[in-house]
């Protein structure tokens, strides 16, 4: 009994020496950051924004936003602390907004160092690029007083499920930055008359913003990445038939595709890479604005859709090649199958991809044409 | 501890020895004398200040000798004495019968020769007949002390079990168990414990099933007891348990004869304490406290579901408040954001740290529970309303505690009441408090360490020399058929290892399905 109690005391002593648990901070003494924003001012100073919820029932606002001028996220935290009542805590950050002005400068990613170094940071935060000044979004107050960070997070998540944008978390961004065979792509929002999602920002592997895809281009990108979720919906898809109408687009169809199978094959000859992308797409017709005898001309219809889709994919790839980036991650295929050749061009993969040939072929299966003829 | 021991020793020096008072009185002689009048005067000198003692002198018609009948008016049934004893002694003239034998209309009749036996007999409600020129007395079994009707068990109600609960009379309790187990191997060993209380203790077991070593341990512990009186089963249990410093109960105390009979059939030993409406069952294992008679009365899927609920409730009762404290004060990262926002909103007005808040609510709950228990039933209910609505609602409105804390405390309370055994439920409520303290200091690490200490203690604990953790701590997978999930009755063919039964099998060759084999 005596020995046991001695052992127990030793354990108790050791427990008190444990790190990580000593910092006791009840919820109400904490300023929980839900959103972090980084932007550049007109005179090229870094500005950090932070939004945290306000629990007090007497307050009309559900959240407060603070901006400080600082040199890094860590520096910003110290300055935030001087302005809010509780200890600033980044463990519940939902979204991180980066102004496009920041993205235009390469190497901005070094700002994020503390996020990955500090184990208490949440790595599930969504990273979002903002087209335009960040202040207009950070101080955006919707009429029904919804917490903006939560709104933005669900906006990204639901749109990702509808294949309108990528879902790049901090963790995923880290991979995309450090993985040489792929370049980062992050969601993009814009504050015009109303806050809205515009698509996907494409960065080169230094982090510099080079191009933006709109929502329908993003869907194609997701198919190529094999990251599409559930149904991919194609709308305003005009076919080459002479049925023009000024007011109503009477050459349009809409359809959705699910269970899309994308196969990517790589080859290396004549000193360059070759990629062969085959996409098998079962489609469900959802809308057809013109009369068409489907039972007779189904093959023709399919061919028209296939040609148009192939064209769209090819255009997308042309842009990617022109910008010398690789958001699809074709470099991963090159590395897997042609390691020696890839290793030589690894550091300049974007350039190597620009010179390679990429063929896309789309095969469409018409599963259903709907309830009416 | 040593300090206290020394302190006690010095204190005892000043205290007069207990037996000195008794020495001043002349002790009762061992044997009775032949003269009735001498015996009666002996009775009167020793039963002083006992107005309920009745001594009736008479001449027995059957033999013509002088005699005296002695009994306690409250303890003996005077109707029985009048109708069957006195009538036959005073009015039945049997000239043929010249022998020593007396004829009374009673089945149960004993003879005794010592004063010790006589004293015991009188206090047990029997009547004692002294006869002239006899060195022995006749003891007639005429008990008439107040007895309670056999009714439903208050503490352990059940749906399918029998609706009789133990009463305060030991012999009736034994009879109730015997009705379930009419078997020659059901043996009863009797002992009397307590210098003044002289409580009759009966040990019931199946001779060919119960482990003799375990029986010996129990018997030895009971025999070695040197106490004034055994008030009830709980007192006996605490006096003979293996580790009095453990929060966990080491004997099952039950009010249900059917449950006691079931445990005997599994190889456990039941101790019936006279004057106590419950019995002591040992050796107990931790998992046996989570079993209930209804588990066997209802179908196995339902029973298993409810039993799993109990184990979940065990974890809720022990850990929920401490997890809440740990999460709120140290690990807010693990809460989903939307929940966190609502917790933050309700915590905002609370001026106390989470540990104090939790302690405040938990202690309020315990006070309510205890006060509801001590009050008469109609008022007890209104205490529940006062506690539940007024304190719960008002405390939140006033900003003393948060909404979430009220939910946590309520859940914890409900969870601790689902444990079928009252002692185990109370033990879990006690364990909760140190858990809350370590959680508030060390967070999840503290909870883990706390649980490890609990497990360590649980593994080391024994009940009557058998492992308390069985079948979990010495792992016996085959016995898990009746632990977390109650398998169909047909598969429960073995007795638990934890009872160390000498006969392991208790059933065999039951059809596995309907009439198929």
Short structural description:
Chain A: Belongs to the GerABKC lipoprotein family. Chain A: Residues 26-190 form the Spore germination protein N-terminal domain. The complex is a heterodimer of chains A (373) and B (517). Chain A is α/β, with parallel strands linked by helices.
Task: Kindly describe this structure.
Chain A: Belongs to the GerABKC lipoprotein family. Chain A: It is a lipid-anchor. Chain A: It is found in: Membrane. The complex is a heterodimer of chains A (373) and B (517). Chain A has twelve helices and 15 strands. With 373 residues, chain A is of the alpha/beta class. In chain A, a hairpin with a 2-residue loop joins strand 13 and strand 14. The mean pLDDT of chain A is 89. Chain B is of the alpha+beta class. Chain B has 16 helices and twelve strands. Chain B starts with a helix and ends in a 50-residue tail after the last strand. At the A-B interface, helix 1 of A face helix 12 and helix 16 of B.
List the helices and strands and how they pair.
The complex is a heterodimer of chains A (373) and B (517).
Chain A: H1 2-17, E1 30-32, E2 35-40, E3 46-53, E4 63-69, H2 73-81, E5 87-89, E6 95-99, H3 100-103, H4 113-117, E7 126-131, H5 134-138, H6 148-161, H7 170-178, E8 185-191, E9 195-203, E10 209-213, H8 215-225, E11 232-238, E12 252-257, E13 261-269, E14 272-288, H9 294-322, H10 330-337, H11 339-345, H12 349-355, E15 357-368
Parallel strand pairs in A: 1-5, 2-6, 6-7, 7-8, 14-15
Antiparallel strand pairs in A: 2-3, 3-4, 8-9, 9-10, 11-12, 12-14, 13-14
Chain B: H1 2-14, H2 20-24, H3 36-46, E1 53-59, E2 66-72, H4 78-91, E3 109-112, H5 115-123, E4 127-131, E5 137-140, H6 170-180, E6 186-193, E7 199-206, H7 212-223, H8 233-240, E8 252-254, H9 257-265, E9 269-273, E10 279-282, H10 293-297, H11 300-329, H12 337-347, H13 354-374, H14 377-397, H15 403-418, H16 422-460, E11 462-463, E12 466-467
Antiparallel strand pairs in B: 1-2, 2-4, 3-5, 4-5, 6-7, 7-9, 8-10, 9-10, 11-12
Helix pairs in contact in B: 6-9, 11-15, 11-16, 13-14, 13-15, 13-16, 15-16
